[in-house]
């Protein structure tokens, strides 16, 4: 865990990877249980976790939510094309898109469009409103294409 590659990446050994694997499945594990699962004692596991936190490898601990039970099970992906892709226009778009709470993720894309948004809403009617009133009104938006997710086969959350 102590090695830093020339590109700034942290070199992880088998134990670090095992710790990250276990924590990604259940971030609420006690250090004792985590140590047991990775086959090390508690002290070195605690030290490794602390070092990975300090190095920015572990950036936080999150709660998994049931979006269906929260009434937010509708996901739509939106491709956005801008009229202007100079730095000032990109900065204006980036700043404004962060103010739309329904936009769960926003990625600048290299390809046929400029951004890919993941939008989470209650239903298609709510999505249509967000698209028309918020996303289309973002700075420099020329056009958008939307794709409704029918099922999450594999999800990061």
TrEMBL record:
GO cellular component: cytosol
Keyword Cytoplasm applies: no
Recorded GO MF terms: sequence-specific DNA binding
The HTH asnC-type domain, residue ranges: 12-73
UniProt keywords, alphabetically: Activator, DNA-binding, Transcription, Transcription regulation
Matches recorded under PROSITE patterns: HTH_ASNC_1, HTH_ASNC_2
Record has Secreted as a keyword: no
GO biological process: regulation of DNA-templated transcription; response to amino acid
Coiled-coil region(s): none
PANTHER family: LEUCINE-RESPONSIVE REGULATORY PROTEIN
Protein name as annotated: HTH asnC-type domain-containing protein
């Amino acid at each position: 865990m102590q090695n830093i590659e020339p590109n700034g990446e942290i070199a992880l050994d088998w134990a670090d990877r095992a710790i990250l694997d276990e924590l990604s499945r259940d971030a609420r594990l006690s250090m004792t249980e985590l140590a047991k699962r990775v086959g090390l004692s508690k002290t070195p596991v605690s030290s490794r976790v602390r070092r990975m936190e300090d190095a920015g490898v572990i950036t936080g601990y999150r709660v998994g939510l049931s979006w269906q039970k929260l009434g937010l099970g509708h996901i739509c992906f939106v491709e956005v094309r801008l009229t202007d892709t100079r730095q000032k226009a990109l900065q204006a778009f980036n700043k404004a898109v962060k103010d739309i709470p329904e936009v769960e993720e926003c990625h600048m894309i290299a390809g046929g469009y400029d951004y890919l948004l993941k939008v989470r809403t209650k239903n298609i009617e709510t999505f249509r409103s967000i698209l028309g009133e918020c996303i289309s009104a973002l700075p420099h938006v020329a056009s958008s294409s939307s794709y409704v997710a029918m099922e999450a086969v594999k999800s990061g959350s």
